[in-house]
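Continuing from the previous page...

OK, I double-checked the sequence for UvrABC system protein A against my notes and this is the correct one:
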Amino acid sequence: MLKSVCEHYNIDMDIPVRNLAKKELDKLLFGSGKEKIHFRYENDYGMIRDTDIFFEGVLHNIARRYRETSSDFIREQMEKYMLNKDCPACNGYRLNEEALSVKVNDLHIGQVTAMSVTEANNFFVNLALTEKEKQIAAMIVRELDDRLMFLNNVGLDYLTLSRGAGSLSGGEAQRIRLATQIGSALTGVLYVLDEPSIGLHQRDNDRLIQTLQRMRDLGNTLIVVEHDEDTMLAADYLIDIGPGAGEHGGEIVAQGTPAQVMKKKKSLTGQYLSGEKFIPVPATRHQPDGRYIEIIGADENNLKNVDVKIPIGIYTAITGVSGSGKSSLINGILHKSLAAKLHRAKQRPGKHKEIKGIEHLEKVIDIDQSPIGRTPRSNPATYTGVFDDIRDVFAQTNEAKVRGYKKGRFSFNVKGGRCEACRGDGIIKIEMHFLPDVYVPCEVCDGKRYNRETLDVKYKGKNIADVLNLTIEEALSFFENIPKIKRKLATIMDVGLGYVRLGQPATTLSGGEAQRVKLASELHRRSDGKSLYILDEPTTGLHIDDISRLLAVIQRLVDNGDTVLVIEHNLDVIKASDYIIDLGPEGGDGGGMVVATGTPEEVAEVKESHTGRYLKPILERDIKRMEAKIGN
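Thanks. Re-ran it with the corrected sequence; updated C-alpha cells here:
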C-alpha cells in the first residue's frame, strides 16, 4: 500500500524518511484525504487485483488499530510509536478556560491538584481568608485537612493529587483505599489487607502500622497477609501457614501471639522472628574496581539534576523513602538509555545529560514481576528453555523413533502432536458475554494438551503430559541422569520454586514467582561478566527464608563478574549489598537528591539518611547474633 502511495505522489522510496519534504511526509503520515489512490495487490488465490482506495495514513492507521483492538499485544505494539504529551489547550490541567479562571489565593484548581499531599496540606492550612470566607469554608477546609492527613499517615505524602490512577503501584492504590476507609471512621468492620507494606520504606511502614492499630482501636478487625517482620511483631495474633510452599504447605504450623509463635520449633516464621534463624551480614563485601556507570544530570520527575556513579561488577542497592526518585533514576533513565544503546530499544529515557561507562556492559536485563507469558501455553519449562531438552529426550526414545516422531511432535504449540480440540491449551474458553469468561478442561484430552498417539510415547514410565505435571523438585530427581536438564532445573530450585509444576500456566504464577523464573533462566546462561541486572523490589511476596535464597542467587551473579542493581526497602536485602546509593531525603519534591553513598556500614553513620537510621540497629543486632552463634 505504501508503495502505491509513493508511486501516486512520485515519492522516492530510497530516500530516508528524515530527508522527505514536509508535503511528502504529511501524505504518508496523515493520508490522502478525499483523494483516491490506485492500489494493486495479490489476493489469497494469487490473483492480481486493482482497486481505488482512500489511504488513511500511517498515524491514523496506528491510532485506529490502537483504538479498535481488544488485544493487549496489539496495543503494546502500537504504544511503541506513541508519547504522552500535555494538552496544549489546557496545559495538562484537563479543565476549560472558564473553570481555570476561578482562583483561591491566586491559584486555580489545576495548580492546587498538581501539588503533593504535603504541599496541598500546607496550602489549606495557610489559606488567607476574611472572617466571612472562614465561616463559609470552615467545614470544607476541615474535611480537606482530615483527608490529606489520612493520605499522609499511610505514607503517600509524596503523591500529587492529580496523579493518574493507572500510574500507581499496587501498594499505593491499596493504601489510598485504606486512607478512604480511615476517613469513614466506621466500626465493627472486617478489613482484609494483602501485603500493605509493598513499596514502603521502613519509616513509612511504621506510620502504616500505627494507622492499622488506630483502625483496630476504633473497634474493627484487621486480617493482614504479610511477610514484613515489624508488621508481624506488631500484630495481636499470628497464624503461620506452612511448613513449606506448594505441596509442602497448607497446614497451620503455629498460631497465637508473636511471642507464642516464636516458641514453636516447627514454625519457620517463628524461628526468624526469635532470631534463632537470620540472614547474616556478609563476612566480606565485593569492592569497586574503579569501573563505573555514571548518570550525569538526572532531572526526570523529582530528580534534581543529580550525578550518580554506580560501581561495575558488584551488588548495589538503590534505597530511599517512597517517592524519593529511585524508579525515575534506574527504570526511567538508566534502563531505558542502556536498552536503547545496547539493544536498540525504542523506549525514550527520562531527562538527563549523559551516561558514561556504557563500554563496560554488553547487555542490560530488567528482571521485573511482569508475567512470563499471557497465555496458558507459557510455563516455567518453556520460559527457561528446559522443555526443549525434555522434548529431545522423548524424541530419542525407541517408541518415538519407531513411529518416526521428531522433537516437534512433543510441542503443544504446533500441529501434529497436540490436541486440536483445545489447540494445546488443555483448557477451553467459554465466553459468557456479560460475565467474565469461564475456562474448563478440554473434554477430548482431559487437560493433557496432547493427542492419544503422542501420549503413548513414554520415558521411564511417564508420557510428556505426566512430565509437565511434575513439580520442579520431582523433575530434578526424575532427570538426575541428564546433566543438561538437571542443571537448568537446579537453578529453578535455587530460587525457591521447587514446588511449582513444570507445565504450570504462566497466568497462575504470582509476580514474585514470575520474577524468580526469570532469574533462574538467567542463572544457567554462561556469563561473560558484562551484564547489568536490574531488580525492582524483588522481595515482594517473599518470606524471609525465600529472601535468603534470593540473596544467594544475587551473590552468584556478582561472583560471575556481573553487576546487580536492586531497588529495595527490605533491610535484609540492603544490608547484604556491597554498595548503597540512598536517595531522598524525603519523597516527592522533598526528594530527588543523593543523600548517602557507600557500604551499608558507611551509610548507617549518615544522620541525614532515613535508610541509615533504620539500618544501623539492624547491623548492630546481627553482629551480636553472629557473636552469640560463634560463642555457642
